[in-house]
Design a protein that fits this description.
single chain, alpha+beta, 1 helix, about 30% helix, elongated
């Protein structure tokens, strides 16, 4: 699980860096697996913020997490 967390952290850092560089909103979706059948679908929207209206100082993330049963049984 630790490897999953470090990969997600690295990916999120890249997303935040992209928002800061492009000064554009960015939406991302990824899945975090818990076991074989249960997953979490994580949707993130990151908005660039500026204190002076010219340069991006920080960004604001909004996230939605949904738990989903991903196993399918065939009858």
């Amino acid at each position: 699980m630790k490897l999953h967390v470090s990969r997600i952290t690295a990916r999120l850092r890249c997303v935040f860096k992209t928002v800061a560089e492009t000064e554009e909103f960015l939406a991302a979706t990824f899945e975090l697996r818990v076991g074989q059948c249960l997953g979490q679908l994580i949707e993130i929207l990151i908005a660039p913020l500026s204190s002076n209206g010219r340069h991006v100082d920080t960004s604001r993330p909004e996230a939605q997490v949904r738990r989903e049963q991903t196993c399918r049984s065939y009858v």
